Amino acid sequence: MNKKLIIINGVMGVGKTTISKMLYKELENSFWLDGDNCWMMNPFVVDDENKNMVLDNITHTINNFIKNSNSRYIVFNWVIHTDEIMNNILKKINTCNVDVYKITLTCSKETLISRIEEDIKNGLRDDKNIERSLEKLLLYDEMNTIKIDTTNKDFQTILKEIKDIIFNS
């Protein structure tokens, strides 16, 4: 039986981290990587050197999870907004005997704004996050991924949809 790499992407504020954490906790023999943890730096600088470092960190960690004899499921979430970025990650991962599921979480603009505003109130994000997220929202529609609309859904419903995909496809 193949291992399963479950990639959950989507715009900032859509619920990737929450869903990934829940999924990882429900799947036995699972590992979880939030791509943001591979880019913890102060100040946050986006340049070619740092982008390459982050991709190396991500792919190295995922490959180690896959190699680990205890792993069955690898959950990875990040704000991957183009097929090019997705493919750059996947081409550096040993997917031999690994089923890959690329799942994009989406939601309506109104829902996204509401969720990010709540995060702002809780000190997790700043006002600029709304603008940046809305700018990228439509890019996810164009990606070659399975889409799950999270608008007006609770986390358990979304989790069930993802589990149906990975266990029934």
Q: Short description, anyone?
A:
This protein is of the alpha/beta class and 169 residues long. It contains six helices and five strands.
Strand content: 15-25%
Question: Could you tell me the number of beta strands?
Answer: 5
DSSP helical segment count? 6
Number of domains: 1
The ordered string of helix (H) and strand (E) elements is: EHEHEHEHHEH
The biggest sheet, with number of strands, parallel, antiparallel or mixed sense and barrel status, is: 5 strands, parallel
Strand order of the largest sheet: 2-3-1-4-5
Structural category: alpha/beta
- CATH architecture heading: 3-Layer(aba) Sandwich
Write the CATH fold name.
Answer: Rossmann fold
Estimate the mean pLDDT confidence: 94
Low-pLDDT ranges: none
Characteristics of this structure?
globular; alpha/beta; single chain; 5 strands; 5-stranded parallel sheet; 169 residues
What does this structure look like?
The chain is α/β, with parallel strands linked by helices. The relative contact order is 0.23. It has one domain (3-163): 3-Layer(aba) Sandwich (Rossmann fold), CATH 3.40.50.300. The chain has a five-stranded parallel beta sheet, sandwiched between helices. The chain starts with a strand and ends with a helix. 44% of the residues lie in helices and 19% in strands. Helix 2 links the parallel strand 2 (30-34) and strand 3 (73-78).
